[in-house]
């Protein structure tokens, strides 16, 4: 009996690694099968005629827009410009290759910037009229640039490159491959281009032409508009 016990003990210890190896092999084979199925499904999705079977449907469950506030406008928008910028934004890790950790996004941002003259809040000192009501002098504030408005219909991502760790992070992220950073940078670049394009000067010229035409139609012969 003792000889039988000694003979079976080594066999039991040797069988445990084999069982663990077989379990790991089965798990690896299952992962390979799942990956193959995903690849085949992706190929089927591109086959014409199978979109109805494997395609997706869009359900719009958006609620109604809610009015948050109202405000009266007292400004004259004298000019507006359309701008476009190509943003090339890259984030990388100092000690890891880009294929492992890093992102690079090429984004085309298109937007509009307006320039206006604020006419609200002017007092009696802003307008001077002579006794004969034939000459008017107006002192207005300088034109101001509005906030850049990014147009989502004309803005789009050209390409996105992400490392392996970033792709895995996107699987558990609430906003995978978000474009907030490139959109913010596009708005900043568009605003800078508007400041350098002379948009405010153009708005002041157009405001002057508008006021001169309005006051001359009211009988004024001489109209002077200055910006302070």
Task: Write structural notes for this entry.
- This protein is α+β, with helices and mostly antiparallel strands and 228 residues long.
- The protein contains five helices and eight strands, in the order H-H-E-E-E-E-E-E-E-H-H-H-E.
- The strands form two sheets. Strands 1, 2, 5, 6 and 7 form a five-stranded antiparallel β-sheet that branches. The chain has a three-stranded mixed β-sheet with strand order 3-4-8, with helices on one face.
- The longest helix has 44 residues, at 2-45.
How are the elements arranged and paired?
Layout: H1 2-45, H2 51-54, E1 75-92, E2 102-118, E3 127-129, E4 135-140, E5 144-145, E6 149-150, E7 156-162, H3 164-171, H4 180-196, H5 199-217, E8 222-227
Estimate what percentage of residues fall within beta strands: 25-35%
Q: Which term fits the overall shape?
A: elongated
Major sheet size, sense and barrel closure: 5 strands, antiparallel
Could you give the order of the helices and strands? Answer: HHEEEEEEEHHHE
Provide mean pLDDT, rounded: 78
Q: Write down how many β-strands occur, each being a DSSP E stretch of 2 or more residues.
A: 8
Give helix % range: 40-55%
How far apart are the termini? 111 Å
The low-confidence runs, each spanning 5 or more residues with pLDDT under 50, are 1-9
The helix/strand class is: alpha+beta
The Cα radius of gyration reads: 34 Å
Number of helices: 5
